[in-house]
Design goal:
The chain is an alpha+beta fold. The protein is about 20% helix and about 35% strand. It has five helices and 45 strands. It is rod-shaped and about 170 Å long. The two termini are about 35 Å apart. The relative contact order is 0.07.
Length: about 600
């Protein structure tokens, strides 16, 4: 009857010892060589004590039997099994990070096993690995990924992980992107500025009518139009006349003494005395002459009919004939006018301009009147004003976002902490600044149509740059506006680090991730290539990391409920277990799940 031997199964490392014991009082120990061992060293055992010493070198798997018998009559007491397994090779360095076109020489240890080493690369298309273990990274690395370098010598095997960094590709691309955007934004700024600068100047005066003939002693109303200010008050204009009199409201009284054949009426902005306009009023005792309408706005190809009102003085037997009127247009080429006062605008109008229509009496040079035609492009007036302003606001917001992204990029690059996982954040940061500046322009600026003066536009332009530069503070301000309107009480400030987005306004901080299942749940040791781990659960951040045995790995793909990550050869080299956890960008850690390696 066999008696138990302890341990019944042993798997010593090369050169290690194992003490076998039996319940028999007097046992003799021996090794039973396997039939396929040949001349290989299978170790030694002390015949009396049962102390087994494994061979210093184990070239391949061997299964050796330890047998205990009675010293007196060779009665069989029992057997134990020794599993001799070649130790895994160590590939040094075991982890390395390389950029495009960089090289790394790998070596296999211990040297006694590293004979006739066969080097393999997985995936095989991720660079080049020669027979001596020298690895060369690909010419271009478009996205960061892991490559496994495996060394095999007989049944001994080891692996190392190469992390291919895309910084050498993305850093120059981002630098070129920022430089290109800078040039583009400067070009657009110079292109928009002439259109917007019209609205940045002080309001301009246009006095109406431009010219007319009034009777001596007649009271004639004058008017003024302000360009660049849609609601300028009437008392913002100061009136004066070289002859006769004029009221603060612009009503002119012609002189009666006959000493002055004409009077120059001037309107001046009270707030800007250097901005003024004037008109000429002819004083006549025979008749008055005026044009109606006094001003008309036309686009290319349109027409308008002007009427000359010739009114003779009461009791004048020599009243001028209305058929002797002569019509002219200035400047030359700015349209045409017929003998009946029908004005025809040019076929196309590329830029806004003023045209003066004049009518004179052929027999009396002092009978004259004038009206104004405002030629505009076919674009609606509100679009001509607002579109350049909107473009400027968007552009300045994008410039602010570009300044933020460029400053963050250079800072993190300078301190050696630049991470290519933020690549798309840097790409879209100027667009975010532009969009947020527009929202701020609409909300905080109290509506587009309230932007009436150059001072308003300059202030909002400066605000647009600040919004683009400090987007998170601006979004927090907008959240406060929404809170005031809608009564929300759950407004959270952004908590992200500088240059990195955090939770949005009005949002609660993200919950911690949770793992529900990890597939596969069991893996084979030293599996080649290492398997892909699928982590399913909830609350996974797009920029999360998978922590495996205290080492964080970037997932190959990530959604809110599923992560996929390729394990390294080092992760599955030995039997045991792996601890798997998920770490979100805000350093929130999930529960741990164990995966068996057996």
């Amino acid at each position: 009857m066999s008696l138990p031997i302890t341990p019944p199964l042993a798997a010593p490392a090369p050169g290690a010892s194992v003490q076998f014991q039996s319940t028999a009082a007097a046992a003799k120990w021996e090794l039973v060589r396997p039939a396929d061992a040949g001349t290989l060293d299978v170790g030694q055992i002390n015949l009396d004590t049962g102390l087994y010493v494994a061979p210093a070198t184990i070239p391949r798997d061997l299964r050796v039997t330890v047998r205990a018998t009675d010293k007196a009559n060779s009665t069989h007491f029992g057997d134990a099994i020794i599993q001799l397994t070649p130790p895994p090779l160590k590939v040094l360095p075991d982890t390395v990070e390389l950029a495009a076109r960089q090289q790394q020489q790998f070596t296999a240890e211990p040297a006694c096993y590293a004979r006739d080493v066969v080097w393999q690369l997985s995936p095989s298309s991720a660079g080049r690995l020669d027979a001596a273990g020298r690895y060369t990274a690909p010419w271009f690395v478009w996205a960061a990924r892991n490559v496994v370098v495996t060394a095999t010598s007989g049944q001994a095997r080891g692996a190392a992980t190469v992390t291919l960094s895309d910084s050498r590709f993305k850093v120059p691309v981002l630098a070129g992107y920022f430089a290109g955007l800078t040039l583009l934004f400067l070009f657009l700024l110079f292109a928009l500025w002439p259109q917007v600068s019209v609205n940045l100047r002080q309001p301009q005066l246009l006095i109406l009518p431009r010219a007319a003939t009034v009777l001596a002693g007649e009271k004639f109303p004058m008017a003024v139009r302000l360009s660049g200010a849609t609601n300028a008050p009437a008392d913002s204009v100061v009136w004066s006349a070289t002859a006769g009199g004029i009221s603060p409201e612009g009503r002119f009284t012609a002189p009666t003494n006959g000493l002055h054949p004409d009077a120059v009426v001037t309107a001046t902005l009270a707030a800007a005395p250097d901005h003024s306009d004037c008109a000429t009023l002819w004083i006549s005792t025979n008749a008055s002459l005026s044009l109606h309408p006094e001003v008309v706005t036309l686009t290319g190809g349109q027409s308008a009919l002007f009427q000359a009102r010739l009114q003779p003085a009461a009791g004048n037997p020599h009243a001028p004939a209305a058929s002797n009127l002569v019509w002219t247009v200035s400047p030359a080429g700015a349209g045409s006018i017929a003998s009946d006062g029908a004005y025809q605008a040019p076929a196309s109008v590329s830029a806004a301009r003023l045209v003066t229509v004049r009518v004179r009496h052929r027999d009396d040079p002092f009978l004259e009147a004038a009206a104004v035609v405002q030629l505009t492009s076919p674009t609606p007036g509100w679009m001509r004003v607002l579109l350049p302003q909107l473009g400027l606001i968007l552009l300045l917001g994008a410039i602010g976002g570009l300044m933020h992204a460029g400053g963050s990029f250079t800072y993190y690059l300078g301190v050696g902490q630049f991470k290519t996982s933020w690549y798309w954040w840097y790409i879209f940061r100027p667009l975010q600044g532009a969009g947020l500046a527009l929202v701020f322009f609409l909300v905080v600026g109290a509506g587009l149509l309230n932007v009436e003066t150059g001072r308003d536009l300059v202030g909002l332009g400066a605000l647009a740059i600040l919004v683009g530069l400090f987007s998170y503070a601006a979004m927090h301000k907008l959240a406060r506006v929404a809170e005031a309107i809608f009564g929300s009480q759950n407004v959270e400030p952004r908590t992200g680090q500088a240059g990195q987005p955090g939770p949005g306004p009005g949002q609660t901080p993200p919950v911690a991730p949770h793992i529900q299942q990890v597939t596969p749940a069991t893996m084979v040791p030293a599996q080649t290539p290492p398997p892909e781990l699928i982590v399913r659960g909830s609350g996974f951040d797009p920029n999360c990391r998978v922590r495996i045995k205290s080492v964080e790995h970037a997932p190959d793909s990530a959604t809110a409920t599923e992560l996929r990550v390729r394990l390294t050869a080092q992760d599955v080299a030995q039997p045991g277990s792996l601890t798997v956890a998920v770490v979100n960008a805000a350093q929130q850690v999930s529960n741990e799940v164990r995966v068996k390696i057996a």
